Queue: 4 jobs
Job 1
Amino acid sequence: MASGPTTGPIFDGEALRARYLAERDKRLRRDGETQYIEASGDFADFVADPYVEPGFARSAVAEDVEVLIVGGGIGGLQTAAEFVRRGIADFRIVEQAGDFGGTWYWNRYPGVRCDIESYIYMPLLEEVGTVPAERYSTGAEIFAHCQAIGRHFGLYERTLFQTRIERMDWDAGAERWIALTDRGDRIAARFVTVSQGPLAKVKLPGIPGIRDFTGRMFHSARWDYGYTGGDQNGGLTGLADKRVGVIGTGATAVQIVPRVAEHAKELYVFQRTPSAIDIRSNRPTDADWLLSQEPGWQRRRMDNFLGIVSGKPVPEVLVDDHWGDLFLRMGELMREARAAGETPDPHEKMQQSDFEKMEAIRARVTAEITDPDLAAKLKPWYNFLCKRPLFSDEYLPTFNRPNVTLVDTDGRGIERITETGIIANGREYPLDLIILATGFDVGAPPHKVGGYKVTGRDGVTLAERWEGDLRTLHGTQLSGFPNFHIVGGTAQGTTAFNFTHTLRMQAEHAAEIIAHCRSRGIAALEPSTDAEERWHALLEAKHVDHEHFYEECTPGFLNNEGQFRDKPTFVGGTYGGGPLEYEELLARWRSKDMASDLVAPPAAAERYRATG
Ligand code: NDP
């Protein structure tokens, strides 16, 4: 029996592990990721844009630009800003939504906030001059900041909104990508960058009867304020006489539930797996403190956070919130063991830190929930990083309200949706409104999220490359796809809790390569297959065995819903050295290897040879 440290909660490690595995087993299901259905075809109404006036029309555009940026979320905005900084002015942005913002355009549900400190999450704060009002910003504030980035860098006049790219084909003769849109536009572009985001492809639960419900039903990423009343701050007065069901207890639901509970006549929260709810502790920004920072502070702070959550030693903890606890405590345990003359096993110390963290999280449930039976149902039994960590000071106490019922399904989920409500645990709950807080297809490749076809110079599509034995360089470029850059490439690239940091890395990378081509009059470059093979070999050499960790996890999108051996997991498919090392590696590659690893596509190479 392993026991806890003298300073932290006492626990029985073996008993905890056995409980974790038993809880996982309850939730493993054969249909894995296919339990979800895409919000397309018969389900396309779930993702219609509720924020634009219907009937938008404009004349089709036919143009030739230097760069086409696909996506106007934070990835596309940072890419555009990098272009402006480098004097690249001839670019066009195409965005499906009615404005910039991406995730923050679509997710306007009540209570929406970012869990990452605003000072590191909101990009370009120093350049744009935004001072976030609070440490953890509201979605509305982040959306407004995205709009401010658009104004600051003059991006509005360069953007086609409410426009979806349908296909992009490399024209070898013209050495350009030809992009066609759903509004009849034809855009020829020497370079293309795509930023589709990890949270753009809405997932619906494949629950039998989902189409039978005759009340109102919507996904959290398309909130219907016409029905609920109120806005992102709450005030949902339309729910005063309504019975509301929320399906899901993830990061989104944790924010929605307290706001809905304030107004709904009855609220039923359908839980398959309890979430681990850590301390939020939001506070207003001290503007004097922020404005007195030395130039370059944001980049330093971003690096500091990423260092902490990558388990790297940092000289000073600048971002001292609860994201870092697990890693800082692990470092402490390692140091303590070394000081005692031991040779500590990092996995063991990480597990100890994790048990401590989760014990504290479970103790918090006991402290917050008045009914012990209810508290037992709200306790999560898995390792902290099995699911995306959540932070809220409001969610748990909401369950003490008399109008709120937790419908715990003990891992089984909902059985059926009927014309009038939801069946769970064999009982029907009559409802007026069902809110699907069931998340997104987080690891989907860009062409799938964007819903477009990309055909490279040899007629092979991006989808075919993805379905085969994928080879990329840095997860951002592919041989056969000249001048094509993925910004937000997680597969074979990187990811981080602070996703805008990873977007910045890859935006800078694309902009540097494009600036390199421009300054040397190079028409087209793509990675050589040798460079891709070397990257692949490095990925293998650096691969971290996440499989063992995820095997013991309760299912979720981080372990492909328990089918983690079928394809790389979201984190397992990234560069194993972590995001900071990845960023350094990209910078080194640009100064040392770019000129040899990027080659002219064959047709262009032949022409160069012919013309001497
Ligand atoms: P998640 O994928 O995290 O959660 C989906 C929820 O739906 C889970 O609780 C899941 O249960 C539940 N579910 C699915 N199918 C069923 C079913 N048949 N019956 C009952 N329950 C079901 O989605 P979210 O939208 O909450 O979060 C997605 C990501 O978005 C986060 O990981 C985060 O990266 C980001 N996000 C960030 C926020 C922030 O910064 N504040 C806020 C919101 C989102 P189970 O756990 O059992 O699978």
Note: The chain is about 35% helix and 15% strand.
Job 2
Amino acid sequence: MTTRIIATGAYVPEQVITNDDIAKVVDTSDEWIAKRTGIKERRISSGENTSMLAVKTARQLLERAGVEAETLDLIIVASITADYATPATSCIVQKEIGATNAVAFDVSAACSGFMFALSIADKYIRAGMYNNAVVIGAETLSKYIDWSDRSTCVLFGDGAGGAYIEKSETDGIIKEEIGTKGEIYDILTAGYTASTGAFNNYNTDHLWYVNMNGREVFKFATKSVVKSVERVLSDAGVSVDSLKYVVPHQANTRIVEIISHKLGIPYEKFYINMDKYGNTSSASIPIALNELNEKGLLKRGDKILLTGFGGGMTWGTMLISW
Ligand code: COA
């Protein structure tokens, strides 16, 4: 028994912020950003919070899968930019779509969040506990961006993407792994809140914003993804040649180029859309997967690989027979 993706969906805010727009507020240029990252524009929310993006994605998933909300067993939202510390964003999704019989919780694994959430949902389904799940990555990273820091503000965007998954006897998830390297957690952080003691005002400082050692993250990304993909393919006994597409975390085209080169997987097999959305953290892989699916580029039985890395530091890779 395995778990199969039945439907994909995504929602991004309407507001497009181009590299030229950002160049009006910090000392940067379209040329620098595009050359170093591959990003040309991103969507930035003008008021919709993370739960709203997730709810719109969930509604689309149910409609596309043709299932009633009451039949849902499990809702997992992966996010690092939830509306509240409590409730979990997934509980808001449960209410808004009327999934009265589902259990809902969130997962925090930054840009690997969707991979972690899918991995968890898969285990519940394989164990026979649940028959189906909605898994969503949703972020409004713009809340955590210091718009005067050119080294980070050019990279991120807002959005949500997800999958409706079901128990399957045939095609589905073949092999996967998730991993963490907490010893270097401090190379990428966001949303720090201090514990200031009784009667003190709750305050935030610069650590509220995304803080990143770009070069170290770059090194971690290329190493961890390459090793993870090699392990998953070798455990599954699947060669790189049999892969139809790789859907990587959409952080930086230079990272993808290195991964492509090291793994010997042609760059054309990597599905890239970071030029339009930037790095949407946990939403990046499902937004890209949904685009690939919407374009009709996936056929039943195609072998595809999802792989990502992110804060934590974390990584996750999944080999799927579509
Ligand atoms: N516009 C113009 N110049 C910029 C800039 C910007 N937006 N951001 C940084 N620079 C400058 C720096 O100040 C530095 O100038 P200096 O040489 O005068 O000191 C120069 O560009 C090089 O900076 P550096 O940080 O070494 O650039 P880089 O080649 O490492 O590229 C990143 C920076 C962030 C694009 C790159 O490190 C990266 O993509 N890292 C991974 C980040 C990532 O994926 N994060 C998400 C993880 S999920």
Note: The pocket of coenzyme A is lined by residues 28, 32-33, 36-37, 111, 150-151, 154-155, 188, 212, 214-215, 217-218, 221, 251-252, 279, 310 (CB under 6 Å).
Job 3
Amino acid sequence: MKKITINDLMQWKQEGKKFPTSTAYDASFAQIFESQNMPLLLVGDSLGMVLQGQPDTLPVTLDDMIYHTKCVRNGSPNCLLMTDMPFMTYATPEEACKNAALIMQAGANMVKIEGGSWLADTVKMLTERSVPVCAHLGLTPQSVHIVGGYKVQGRQEKQAEQMLQDAIELQNAGAQIILLECVPASLAAKITRSLDVPVIGIGAGPDTDGQILVMHDMFGISANYMPKFSKNFLAETGDLRQAIAKYMEDVERGIFPDEAHTIA
Ligand code: KIV
């Protein structure tokens, strides 16, 4: 696989070419994903739940993310690699810079942070200092205790308008990818159309530029609950590599997510 950069994603957005993404946490799976030409991998702090068996992502540490970033980079030298900054490691722009540097030095090409326009200064400071940023909006799992659960976000008109404004503000601050989790498909489509940067969705309907799945959900092996919008591609194909290939093909052809895996 050739080395993938943010420029490839920008070009795919302009061409209307949909792209798949997955989480990965270790070298073996990263190598398998790379052998299937998965362009973008996320070392998600979902590892707190799917690897560590924690009830949420809050206990995940910076050291955990650095360790797993190194593992994934070793297995996939060519993917565009994005790593989550864990809870409270980007509470101020200064802390974000210090901690993001360690994640980039571990092999990431981009960091992902959760939150709306309050993060604009942080995004500006990071990107001005050459740390590319993906901004995660909608259901932001690190906010689970403030929100009171894992709930669809953006159903009310005011909330939807705020999310669109947040996305625009974060793009203007320098964010190079926006990720939307668990939002109604019509809102995700509107945000995707309104932005120049690529938008990746999970539980955000078929109209975002890219899709992402937690790999344990793709294989139906999550210890915890499996969200309605996820799909077990291993059950459909019976083979790990074929499951990845089928997921990628279905995203590229616009077949996944279908209506059954979309939040209306
Ligand atoms: O941590 C993670 O795996 C994520 C995805 C759900 C997008 O943020």
Note: The mean pLDDT is 97.
Job 4
Amino acid sequence: MKIKACLFDLDGVVVDTARYHYIAWKKTAEDLGFHFSENDNERLKGVSRMDSLNILLDIGKISLKQDQKELLADKKNNLYVSYIRQMTPDEILPGVIAFLDELRDNGILIALGSASKNAMTILELINLTRKFDVVIDGNKVGKAKPDPEVFLKGAFELGIDPANCLVFEDAQAGIDAARNAGMHIIGIGQAENLKNADFIIPGFENMNFDRLQSLYF
Ligand code: BG6
Ligand code: MG
């Protein structure tokens, strides 16, 4: 059996927090006096908070000192946290819970591999913490995606060889991280935004263990 563990990104894969990140960054850009489009936002997906701010400032052609950047990153995070505080399990993306349960019933281990420092808060709010055998988040890694650290740590904690791991990701930085970790990858979203995945699916609604078996086993 080729796939022994599945590692899930959080934002944009398990739950639609990508939308809240976008609204908070858009407001940050507007406060700085420039427009930030949904297309620009694709570059921020999967990227750490400070790296995201650096890309945003680059788009706005603004240069700031490190202490100003830290204040701005905190401000964006406070705004983001104010949005996610209201989250409920209803916001889990369609098909996710059934797929996680099916994986577990078939003996596949499950990890979360997220760049977010808010990952545990979100998992608690949507009542999903107990579905994951291991959670690696932005507080546990030193190097952000596309570095493979987050997924390699997940595989290590699960005790599974990276070659037997499958990653689900909605961001190019995450696909690159999974590739760098030597893992199998399914992209979530639209093919034009995601290069180098093994397969692309729109979401988990039509995903199940049989389909996974037909793709990889
Ligand atoms: C990733 C998101 O999961 O986490 C990025 O895709 C985000 O958009 C990053 O910047 C860091 O999240 P947080 O919650 O620590 O600011
Ligand atoms: Mg994501």
Note: Residues 28 and 138 are 21 Å apart (CA to CA).
